[in-house]
């Protein structure tokens, strides 16, 4: 059993909070004053602590540096209208972390360890939660194997950490995406559904080729036929075609996005027609050509709701109408923001007060 009340706290003597400029927050560059750490040694999580954010010393033979035995999560903390710090569906992140952990032979992180570490860290660094619209404190929990061993096997020892960084938008303007039909992100039986570091590493080369062609991101298709839409590099994707909200079902190859689930839940509660079923690339392309693709957008924690401006497929480019307040993507983002700030009642128990 873990006694999470034993979190040791070592406060920094030199806060860097004056480096935070709420009007100009680049994504992932500035980290808050503290970080949470727990070590898995001899089969149990121990030495729970919050310490000043700092570099770590690791062995050059640390297994994760060689074999990517690492998983992560992404969630956000916000200030509500009353100035309190809240987080959005953190229990869902705790549970998804353990789905990833199982696939990567990483020990389970008890929900209480995840939630207590998160809560204590956010209490201590509450001043780092920005309050301007569109900003948040991004929270990055992660686990990695720490064995000093370069043989290929699961690690015996692990570290679970939480770091946080104030963020603005991940995408500062509507994105240009390319439907990828040569490279693959995931296959059935692989690790696509896990939030595993290696999945992201493997996506970088195809993404770079697309960036050289002027795109911001890829839309991945299934690894076998490349006929079906899967997800984008940093977010799940949704399409509004003929008034129906369409997205691929989550599966062994698609990440179970928490923002994805929240958007689908709201859409259904609003009485919209929602179809969580395979989406053919050819359907999206035909709808774009015929003006029936009313909206396309990415959904993710970091990306929030990211309108897609242009879709590239083979040699063609399809420009989509600019999203205005009448678009579902705008309305649902407003609703999510209102739930977090408390302007709209949190009927689904999504908001967690720190
Ligand atoms: C998130 O949205 O939190 C993610 O983990 C995506 C990340 C790769 C930026």
From TrEMBL:
Pathways involved: Amino-acid biosynthesis; L-leucine biosynthesis; L-leucine from 3-methyl-2-oxobutanoate: step 4/4; Amino-acid biosynthesis; L-isoleucine biosynthesis; L-isoleucine from 2-oxobutanoate: step 4/4; Amino-acid biosynthesis; L-valine biosynthesis; L-valine from pyruvate: step 4/4
EC number: 2.6.1.42
InterPro entries (alphabetical): Aminotrans_IV, Aminotransferase-like, B_amino_transII, BCAT-like_C, BCAT-like_N, BCAT_family
N6-(pyridoxal phosphate)lysine PTM sites in chain numbering: 195
Coiled-coil blocks: none
Domain of life: Bacteria
Keyword Transport: no
Entry keyword set: Amino-acid biosynthesis, Aminotransferase, Branched-chain amino acid biosynthesis, Pyridoxal phosphate, Transferase
Any one Gene Ontology BP term: L-valine biosynthetic process
GO terms assigned for molecular function: branched-chain-amino-acid transaminase activity
Cofactor: pyridoxal 5'-phosphate
Known catalytic reactions: L-valine + 2-oxoglutarate = 3-methyl-2-oxobutanoate + L-glutamate; L-isoleucine + 2-oxoglutarate = (S)-3-methyl-2-oxopentanoate + L-glutamate; L-leucine + 2-oxoglutarate = 4-methyl-2-oxopentanoate + L-glutamate
Top-level class of the enzyme under EC nomenclature: transferase
SUPFAM superfamilies for this protein: D-aminoacid aminotransferase-like PLP-dependent enzymes
Job description of the protein: Acts on leucine, isoleucine and valine.
Homology family: Belongs to the class-IV pyridoxal-phosphate-dependent aminotransferase family.
Protein name from the UniProt record: branched-chain-amino-acid transaminase
Organism for this UniProt entry: Roseivirga spongicola
């Amino acid at each position: 059993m873990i006694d999470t009340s034993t979190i040791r706290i070592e406060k920094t003597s030199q806060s860097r909070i004056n480096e935070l400029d709420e009007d100009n927050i680049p994504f992932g560059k500035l980290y808050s004053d503290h970080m949470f750490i727990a070590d898995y040694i001899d089969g149990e999580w121990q030495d729970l602590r919050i310490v000043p954010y700092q570099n770590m010393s690791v062995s050059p033979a640390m297994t994760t540096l060689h074999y990517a035995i690492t998983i992560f999560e992404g969630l956000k903390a916000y200030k509500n209208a009353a100035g309190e710090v809240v987080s959005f569906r953190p229990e869902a992140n705790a549970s998804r972390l353990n789905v990833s952990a199982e696939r990567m032979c990483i020990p389970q992180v008890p929900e209480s360890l995840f939630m207590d570490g998160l809560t204590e860290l956010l209490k201590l660094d509450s001043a780092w939660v920005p309050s301007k619209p569109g900003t948040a404190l991004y929270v990055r929990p992660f686990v990695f194997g720490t064995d000093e061993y370069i043989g290929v096997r699961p690690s015996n020892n692990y570290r679970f950490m939480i770091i946080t960084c104030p963020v603005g938008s991940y995408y500062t303007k509507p994105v240009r995406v390319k439907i990828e039909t040569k490279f693959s992100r995931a296959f059935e039986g692989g690790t696509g559904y896990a939030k595993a570091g290696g999945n992201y590493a493997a996506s970088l080369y195809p993404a770079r080729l697309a960036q050289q062609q002027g795109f911001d991101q890829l839309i991945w298709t299934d690894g076998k036929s490349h006929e079906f839409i899967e997800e984008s590099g940093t977010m799940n994707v949704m399409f509004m075609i003929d008034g129906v909200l369409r997205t691929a079902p989550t599966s062994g190859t698609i990440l179970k996005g928490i923002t994805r689930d929240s958007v689908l839940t709201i859409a259904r509660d609003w009485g919209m027609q929602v179809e969580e079923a395979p989406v053919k690339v050819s359907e999206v392309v035909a709808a774009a050509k015929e003006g029936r693709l009313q909206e396309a957008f990415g959904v993710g924690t970091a990306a929030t709701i990211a309108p897609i401006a242009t879709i590239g497929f083979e040699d063609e480019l399809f420009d989509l109408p600019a999203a205005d307040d009448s678009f579902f993507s705008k309305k649902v983002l407003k609703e999510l923001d209102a739930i977090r700030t408390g302007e709209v009642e949190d009927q689904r128990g999504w908001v967690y007060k720190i």
